[in-house]
Amino acid sequence: MLYTSIAFWAIFLAFAVKLGVWPVHTWLPDAYSAAPDAGSIILSAVMSKMGAYGMLRIMLPFVPDAAQYFAPVLGAIALLSIVIGASTRWARPRAT
Fold first, then answer.
1. Quick one: pLDDT at residue 21?
2. How far are the Cα atoms of 22, 31, 47, 65, 93 from residue 18, in angstroms, in the given order?
């Protein structure tokens, strides 16, 4: 179980960075603001979804037991991401 856990977290971290999961999302706002309009559209529409696709198509079949074992941890990370994202949005001033 140790090696599958290491493989699970390594694959998860790689795709979480691409997906923009908290706390490894800090590159995403800079990338959106620095990219031209077409690049930003491609980044948000296609490339960010590749992280989720990779988790579903590569990580889950590769280490299914570890994915099932760590599912509550991933759920907690997802819930924490939602709460932090919402509270961050409330704290920022409204764009005009």
1. 77
2. 11, 12, 8, 23, 27
Every domain of the chain and the residues it spans: 2-91
Q: Could you tell me the pLDDT band of residue 55, with boundaries at 50, 70 and 90?
A: confident
In the block, residue with structure tokens 């991933």: 74
Question: pTM, whole model, 2 decimals?
Answer: 0.73
Neighbours of 59 (CB within 10 A): 19
Structure tokens at 6: 């290491």
Dihedral sign, CA of 71, 44, 14, 51?
Answer: positive
The pLDDT of residue 7 is 92
